Amino acid sequence: MYASKSTFIDNKTLVVIDPEGEVFKISFLFPLDNDDLGMVATYVANSFDRNYSQDKSLMVYFVFCDVQANLGISFSSWSSDRAEERSRIGARLKEIREKKKMEAKNIARIAGIDPSNLSKIEAGKYSVGLDILSKIANAIGACVDIVEK
Fold first, then answer.
1. Nearest CA to 47 among 72, 35, 34, 65?
2. DSSP labels for 10-53?
3. How far apart are CA 26 and CA 11, in angstroms?
4. pLDDT tens for residues 31-56?
5. Is 67 helix (H, G, I), strand (E, B) or coil?
6. What average pLDDT does the segment 6-18 reach?
7. Using CA atoms, how far apart are residues 138 and 140, in angstroms rounded to an integer?
8. How far, in Å, are 10, 28, 50 from residue 20 at the CA level?
9. Is the sign of the CA dihedral 31, 29, 26, 58 positive or negative?
10. How many Cβ atoms from other residues are within 10 Å of residue 132's Cβ?
11. Contacts of range 49-53, beta carbons closer than 8 Å, 24 or more positions apart
């Protein structure tokens, strides 16, 4: 793992790359003073490292709280390059599980994961590796595949 990196693209928008390489775009509520951009970029990158989590929504929430409490500035929004894909995959897992009338707690047990983590995966909030994704897919009688867009 490496340290997060961040760069302002204008005085309201910061791009942060977390230790896994996920790219987050953070918009601040108000434009920041140009003299403060370097300090804020460094602070936010360090906050991403301090608050790193597989649960990306929770991670950004803690970064938001940290930045607001210690720098007195707020985000107006954030997005990530992987959030949509996590949501799509999680929704598909849930759809297959429910279609087969399988209970989430049983799938979690079979896959060897905590039921609350399965819930976060299905909601698209939790970043999960291929091994865990394959275990969940196998538990619901599916497989992981890569398809062209």
1. 65
2. ETTEEEEE-TT--EEEEEESSPPPGGGHHHHHHHHHHHHHHT--
3. 11
4. 999 999 999 999 999 999 999 988 88
5. helix
6. 97
7. 5
8. 24, 23, 14
9. positive
10. 17
11. 49/3, 49/4, 49/19, 52/4, 52/18, 52/19
